[in-house]
Amino acid sequence: MADRDVVLEVNDLHTYFFNRRGVTKAVDGVSFSIREGETLGIVGESGCGKTMTALSLLRLVPKPAARIVSGEIILDGEDLVQMSNSEMRDVRGRKISMILQDPQTSLNPVFTIGNQLTEALGAHGRSGRRETWDKAVQALRNVRVAAPERRLEDYPHQMSGGMKQRVIGAIAVSASPKVIIADEPTTALDVTIQLQYLRLLKEIQAETGLAIIFITHDFGIVARMCDRVAVMYAGRIVEQADVRDLFNKPLHPYTQALMDSVPKMDRTDRLFAIDGQPPPLWDLPEGCRFAPRCGQARDICLTGYPAVTNHENNHLAACWMHHPEWNTGPE
Ligand SMILES: Nc1ncnc2c1ncn2[C@@H]1O[C@H](COP(=O)(O)OP(=O)(O)O)[C@@H](O)[C@H]1O
Ligand code: SF4
Ligand SMILES: [Mg+2]
């Protein structure tokens, strides 16, 4: 994977909410990059800033409360943070796009599939009606929808969940974006739909070579889907590595705790849950944000946020344990 080009590079991104409570640091210094054809998983408990990171990349953070305060989002050589709204409208969909998992909420029930697909295709070019229709047929064929000509006349309710997802996939990739973001749905999906969705994403990627950012709180899905993983906690990435390295040798106690919460095949009891709560993002502690929940915390952990250390194979971690002072500093 190392010889492929980096398509997206995020540097020290900060996205804050400004409201009565004060400043909520939803994304607080996030950096990562992703290569062509690569799948990056972003994983972490609910509320740690995954969706806000995704919305920042699309420049769709809720207005007026939230704002990208600083940082860079370099896509294809251009910084999205610096773009005007109209430049950004052109980039969205065409170069970076989002694919929703829930087929029930992602298509408009009152328009045919043909309407919705040609709309998506037409918005990015000036081709004639006939030509756009032909492209729509091809787009459905690309995501392996049988009898695409007939399917274009259907309304969403006439299709199965899996079929609707294929249509959503066709819309998301219709303009050949470089990067697509797949965020976990807010409501639970049934397992079949979820598996169909994962398969669809992989098929699309194999055919187009696009980079995927896959957001989930489920480590099991990360293991199946991703090449590289970023673990988020309280607005920051606390560890990132190639999937295999992360699973073989997690360096951050939070990652270890999350991995212990992956359902085991031989267990029938409830998922292991990590004790305690993440800190409020409007009142963050000075030191390591995981310290109150960490079994290995020492006094040094409270002295400041741990700097990121770089281990073998570009495996990054932000934990005091990996600093030389760990053995010499206060216990
Ligand atoms: N509409 C909102 N208004 C104020 N704060 C918000 C809003 N949405 C999200 N946040 C804050 O941003 C944090 C990160 O949210 P989010 O990115 O949605 O988390 P995740 O996707 O990881 O579950 C939340 O913990 C919350 O503090
Ligand atoms: S810095 Fe300290 S408290 Fe934070 S995860 Fe590492 S050992 Fe635990
Ligand atoms: Mg979310």
Explain this structure to me?
This protein is of the alpha/beta class and 331 residues long. It has two domains: 198 residues, P-loop containing nucleotide triphosphate hydrolases (Rossmann fold, 3-Layer(aba) Sandwich); 65 residues. Helices cover 30% and strands 24% of the residues. The chain has eleven helices and twelve strands. The strands form two sheets. It has an eight-stranded mixed sheet with strand order 6-7-8-3-9-10-12-11, with helices on both faces. It has a four-stranded antiparallel sheet with strand order 2-1-4-5. Strand 1 and strand 2 form a beta hairpin. It is elongated and about 70 Å long. The site of magnesium ion has 2 residues, from helix 1.
Features:
alpha/beta, 331 residues, four-stranded antiparallel β-sheet, eight-stranded mixed β-sheet, binds iron/sulfur cluster, binds adenosine-5'-diphosphate, 11 helices, elongated, binds magnesium ion, Rossmann fold
Average pLDDT number = 89
How many whole angstroms does the radius of gyration measure?
A: 21 Å
Write down the CATH topology of the largest domain: Rossmann fold
Unreliable segments (pLDDT under 50, ≥5 consecutive)? 265-272
Beta percentage is: 15-25%
Can you count the beta strands? Answer: 12
> Sheet with the most strands?
8 strands, mixed
Q: What's the level 1 CATH class of the largest domain?
A: Alpha Beta
Distance between the first and last residues' Cα:
41 Å
Q: State the helix count.
A: 11
Shape-level CATH architecture of the largest domain: 3-Layer(aba) Sandwich
Helix content: 25-40%
Ligands, ions, cofactors: adenosine-5'-diphosphate, iron/sulfur cluster, magnesium ion
Strand order of the largest sheet: 6-7-8-3-9-10-12-11
